[in-house]
Amino acid sequence: MNPAGDPVVTGLGALTPVGLDAPSTWRALVAGQSGIGPITQFDASELATRIAGEVSGFDAVEALGAKRAHRSARFSQLAIVAAREAVADAGLDVAGEADRVAVAIGSAVAGTPETERAMRALFEEGPRAVSPFYVASTILNMASCEVAIDLGVHGPVTASALACATGTYSILEARRLILSGEADVVIAGGADAGITEAVFAGLSNMGPLSENNADPTGASRPFDSDRDGFVFGEGAVVMVIESAAHAEARGATSYGRVAGGALTSDAFHMSAPEPSGDYAAGAIRLALERTGIAPEELGYICAHGTATRANDVSESRAIRAALGDATDNIPVSSPKSMVGHLIAAAGSLAGMVCLLAMRDGVLPPTINLTNPDPECDLDHVALTARDAEPTTAIANAFGFGGQNCVVAFRRA
Q1: Annotated catalytic, 380?
Q2: pLDDT at 402
Q3: Contacts of 412 (CB under 8 A, 6+ apart)
Q4: Can you tell me the distance from the alpha carbon of 302 to that of 294, in angstroms, rounded to the nearest whole number?
Q5: pLDDT value at residue 383
Q6: Catalytic pick from 145, 246, 302, 341?
């Protein structure tokens, strides 16, 4: 039973650098396996950063058919397949209730690879060489729209963009759609695929990327004194979120409850976090207050944990400021140590990690955390997984532009 009436998560789907579905992704994260490797999607030999978290082994033609694969952007392709998995996992049949099923899948870099190809074609071969599907396939809402088309659902379709906090916010957006009565079911998450030469050139020139090309699996080092930046990744993580009544009526099994969350703004800088962490702390504090979770009750934090010098320190300060004396007893880990930063999908992956950690009683580690930064003084689940029995968990996500989003979950 769910006396609070919180929406529940009944299905999960994922394509990540460590797995082509949710179960294999989870097993890899618990085992501490890294999916970081040399870039294969373009020639990166001239760039300072030549590593990424790629979704390897994904065949869009096999998954979607040649015609649809040709017309769609990679971020949408990943979202479609992850959504199909989530719906199948939930045992959901949308026939007969398609008007009550919504989609909320966000993206940040969206169709950047296709844009880069279109620009090359335009300048090298002329206007007629640009794909007629270029504009429609690359716009930010297209992952949500293509999932709706694929599943044949007609409820609200939305796509919010909060940079690296997008996937987390999509979960809250789903909760609001359900509690407002606009939908009974929401297919929610994040999808991004932006591993391109222009993206990597721009980020390399900005400076936040790891340049540890000689040791790809050891390059992403959240909270470690030797961290040198984040590893860019791609992927899609999608959930089926239902009203408690709808899930109960059809006898669905729940992974956990979406208890609530909060969103605040640093209003500080285009890319750097506000150093004190005060506004990120505000999002954590508000998320707990709104869900009735006391700091002492919090069982796990899936951290944003990007492995940049500034972000890890500001997040650590935020956690300690929000949770006070309880901080030392709350375990923290970052899956970005294994998959890199999946941008819009990062927050939905963190949500999936929270749910499965509560279900299975195990916390995945932050690998490569061999020399913890003294300024990141938290209870890190370092190097190997830890057995635990959390009944509550939060997922942190902090995006470019200062967008702080925290979502809280309760065990089923």
Answers
A1: no
A2: 86
A3: 8, 253, 254, 255, 256, 257, 358, 359
A4: 17
A5: 97
A6: 341
For the segment 132-189, what is each residue's pLDDT rounded down to a tens digit? 999 999 999 999 999 999 999 999 999 999 999 999 999 999 999 999 999 999 999 9
| pTM: predicted TM-score of the whole model, two decimal places | 0.96
Amino acid occupying residue 125: E
Based on the residue annotation, tell me whether 246 is a catalytic residue of this protein.
no
At 38, list the tokens: 């040399």
Q: Matching CATH topology for 8-249 and 257-411?
A: yes
Burial of 212 (0-12, 13-18, 19+ CB in 10 A): buried
Q: Which residues pair with 12 in a beta bridge?
A: 239
Closest CA to 235 of 49, 403, 109, 65: 109
Give the CATH fold of the 257-411 domain: Peroxisomal Thiolase; Chain A, domain 1 (3.40.47)
Sole residue written with tokens 């694929």: 150
Quick check: helix, strand or coil at residue 309? helix
> Per CATH, which fold does 8-249 belong to?
Peroxisomal Thiolase; Chain A, domain 1 (3.40.47)
All residues at 6 or more sequence positions from 251 whose CB lies less than 8 Å from its CB, including other chains: none
Query: In the chain, what are the domain boundaries?
Result: 8-249, 257-411
- List the catalytic residue out of 145, 246, 302, 304: 304
Extract the tokens encoding 339. Answer: 């998959």
304 is catalytic: yes
For residue 4, the model assigns a pLDDT of 67
Which residues of the chain, if any, have pLDDT below 70? 1-4
| Per-residue model confidence (pLDDT) at position 274 | 86
What is the reported pLDDT for 7?
Answer: 98
What is the number of other CB atoms lying within 10 angstroms of the CB of residue 152?
10
Alpha-carbon dihedral sign for residues 406, 5, 177, 187: positive
